[in-house]
């Protein structure tokens, strides 16, 4: 996809490419640094979550030139089309298949190995070795593809990455084991090769699943816009047009109950729209001639005609999606850590294995013995225990939190949740339940309840729905009305027994009120959007944990003040999605690590920009997908419980790191000294992983 842009008066082009082969922080550095050296490239940014590369370049530089440059660096790239985007989810499915194959093979090969360890010898041992080879070799060929492809592309481009030593170790051990099996040798190490693949694939699959979930948040937001619109042509005919085919100047006819497919200006008609997608304000807003409306807004009232001003990637909803992508990518601390690990691991392991091989040759050992030592070094330095130190603790803690009513979507969320030192709440639907309750139904005479139900049932306004719920609980049947009309900005009017009746706008200073009018008599109906259960207790616990809280809401100041009375919270009101992003940025500039808690679609960018984020289960799809964790039920207490569990988790993670480092300090010198065979190396590597996992299991009650 290519769009024109301009920079300092000089036209430039922005090209977006899919880079499916990027899978670590080291890839980001290589791609961005590599393209930065190409003449004509102004800037390049690779988003690991979406695996999309944005390149700003001079018009003279063509897309094939960029893809050719990427190929020389070692990455395949293709123009970003809808078909290319669909293929991104295939990576996870392929990794899952490889993990399943490696798991199945590991169990069967280990059964054969146990027989050999139990004393099988001679022809029986050789037969078991051959059977293990028949299982292991196809498994290595199939399940090792993700590592072999990455290593091959890196070597072809004249560089190295973490997959190169892994691939060399697996292939070397498999080849030596095949040699041993074919020559009747005493030892074969097929079990070590397939176990190594299984542990590595498990970690890579979990990482891929997490990234797929992050992409789903942006996709859900884009889907809020209508798929198309009915367009009024100049000759008077109408035609349904897909959203991507709409053009500026088209006139869309938007019926009541329909969402808009593009941004535009109302040309004819008056109505009310639900704009919570952009502002979070739940009250409908009246629109008429000349008013701006945006893609994704829901037309609640009458039919309107809208002249299109922006479509596709230029709409406001698309801008929110871009904010989410940019914010999600801006977690640079973890990127830098992974980047440093990627830089150090591969050369260190290569140097260590090569040194051991050469040293043993110099000491007079044969090539076979030297290769076994080098293979043992490669296997024993496999960072499985180090790699499991964090995800194992995260998975166990996430299971504990799930039983406590918190679904953790991003494994690294616990890491960031433990560091949170400021909680920023949205109001409606987050601190409050978002379901207004009617307070004074008793002030309406019971004989008029059927009339009230008939009026409230004719509107989709949240307060009307609250009236309907209250009357439904009383078992009231609706009266029959004539000439029912909903007027934008006012409410519902009708005729009942020859009298004019209405349910409309309430007190101007209170957004949670409405008025029932029968003839000339009126009754004011009052509502209350109650706080979530345990709200004060949650705020108190957060304060004890050193996490002060404040509110950032899209609602008006009166509504916010009424809801927060007595909680002692400071609040910012009438905030747009960009305002909330700015508020988070201000807190981050003074060193705060913000836990953002929100529910609306307009909270999506803020949820992605926060150091960590949570959303209630009642949140919109966009809110849930953008958040790192979702809490179930009405109670707010899981927010504080999640922080407590996250801090316990990080204590265990630090212990796991210490165990993994201690393992390497002891095991690597032994392997280098030739005291460890490849099989023992694989067992030691697996044993260190088991110890780390066992320590992580202590977190089963982290959320209790």
Description:
It is a single chain. This protein has 704 residues and is an alpha+beta fold. It contains 24 helices and 27 strands. It has a seven-stranded mixed beta sheet with strand order 15-27-26-25-16-23-24, with helices on both faces. The radius of gyration is 31 Å and the shape is elongated. The model is unreliable at 1-8 and 330-339 (pLDDT under 50).
Largest sheet: 7 strands, mixed
In the predicted model, the low-confidence regions spanning at least 5 consecutive residues are 1-8, 330-339
Distance between the termini: 50 Å
Backbone shape: elongated
Q: Count the helices. How many? A: 24
Q: List how many beta strands DSSP finds.
A: 27
Strand percentage? 15-25%
- Using only CA atoms, what is the Rg? 31 Å
> What share of residues is helical?
40-55%
């Amino acid at each position: 996809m290519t769009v024109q842009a301009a920079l300092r008066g000089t036209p430039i082009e922005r090209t977006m490419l899919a880079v499916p082969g990027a899978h670590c922080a080291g890839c980001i550095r290589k791609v961005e640094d590599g393209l930065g050296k190409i003449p004509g490239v102004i800037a390049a940014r690779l988003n690991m979550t979406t695996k999309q590369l944005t390149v700003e370049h001079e018009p003279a530089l063509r897309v094939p030139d960029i893809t050719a440059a990427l190929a020389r660096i070692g990455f395949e790239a293709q123009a970003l089309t809808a078909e290319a985007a669909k293929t991104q989810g295939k990576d996870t499915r392929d990794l899952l298949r490889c993990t399943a194959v490696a798991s199945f093979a590991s169990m069967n090969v280990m059964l054969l190995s146990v027989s050999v360890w139990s004393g099988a010898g001679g022809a029986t041992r050789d037969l078991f070795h051959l059977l293990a080879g028949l299982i292991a070799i196809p498994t290595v060929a199939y399940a090792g593809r993700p590592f072999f492809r990455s290593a091959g592309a890196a070597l072809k481009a004249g560089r190295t990455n973490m997959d190169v030593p892994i691939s060399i170790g697996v292939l070397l051990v498999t080849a030596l084991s095949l040699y041993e099996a074919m020559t009747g040798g005493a030892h074969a190490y097929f079990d070590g090769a397939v176990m190594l693949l299984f542990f590595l694939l498990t970690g890579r699959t979990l990482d891929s699943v997490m990234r797929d979930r992050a992409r789903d948040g942006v996709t859900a937001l884009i889907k809020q816009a209508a798929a198309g619109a009915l367009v009024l042509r100049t000759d008077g005919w109408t035609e349904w047009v897909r959203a991507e085919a709409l053009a500026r100047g088209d006139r869309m006819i938007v019926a009541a109950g329909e969402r808009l497919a593009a941004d535009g200006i109302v040309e004819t008609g008056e109505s009310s729209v639900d704009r919570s997608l952009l502002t979070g304000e739940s009250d409908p807003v009246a629109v008429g001639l000349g008013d701006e409306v945006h893609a994704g807004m829901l037309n609640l009232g009458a039919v309107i005609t809208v002249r299109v001003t922006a479509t596709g990637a230029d709409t406001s909803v698309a801008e929110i999606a871009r904010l989410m992508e940019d914010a999600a990518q801006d977690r640079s601390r973890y990127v830098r850590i992974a980047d440093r690990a990627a830089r150090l691991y591969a050369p260190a392991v290569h140097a260590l294995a090569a040194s051991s091989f050469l040293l043993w040759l110099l000491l007079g050992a044969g090539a076979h013995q030297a290769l076994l030592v080098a293979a043992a070094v490669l296997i024993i330095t496999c960072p499985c225990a180090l790699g499991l130190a964090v995800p194992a603790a995260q998975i166990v803690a996430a299971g504990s939190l799930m039983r406590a009513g918190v679904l953790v979507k991003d494994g690294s969320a616990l890491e960031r949740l433990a560091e949170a030192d400021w909680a920023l709440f949205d109001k409606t639907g987050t601190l409050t339940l978002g379901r207004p309750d009617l307070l004074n139904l008793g002030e309406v005479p019971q004989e008029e309840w059927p009339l009230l139900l008939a009026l409230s049932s004719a509107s989709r306004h949240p307060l009307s729905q609250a009236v309907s719920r209250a009357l439904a609980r009383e078992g009231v049947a609706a009266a029959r009305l004539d000439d029912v009309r909903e007027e934008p900005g006012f409410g519902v009017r009708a005729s009942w027994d020859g009298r004019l009746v209405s349910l409309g706008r309430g007190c101007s200073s209170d957004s949670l009120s409405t008025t029932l009018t029968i003839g000339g008599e009126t009754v004011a109906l009052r509502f209350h959007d109650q706080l979530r259960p345990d709200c004060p207790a949650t705020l108190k616990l957060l304060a004890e944990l050193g996490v002060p809280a404040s509110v950032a809401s899209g609602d008006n100041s009166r509504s916010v003040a009424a809801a927060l009375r007595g909680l002692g919270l400071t609040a910012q009101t009438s905030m747009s999605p960009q305002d909330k992003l700015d508020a988070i940025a201000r807190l981050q500039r003074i060193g705060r690590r913000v836990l953002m808690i929100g529910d609306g679609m307009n909270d999506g960018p803020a949820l992605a920009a926060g150091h960590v984020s949570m959303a209630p289960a009642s949140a919109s799809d966009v809110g849930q997908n953008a958040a790192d964790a979702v809490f179930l039920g009405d109670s707010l207490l899981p927010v504080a419980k999640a922080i407590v569990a996250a801090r316990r988790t990080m204590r265990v993670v630090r212990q796991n790191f210490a165990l993994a480092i201690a393992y390497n300090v002891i095991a690597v010198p032994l392997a280098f000294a030739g005291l460890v065979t490849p099989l023992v190396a694989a067992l030691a590597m697996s044993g260190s992983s088991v110890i780390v996992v066992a320590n992580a299991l202590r977190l089963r009650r982290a959320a209790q």
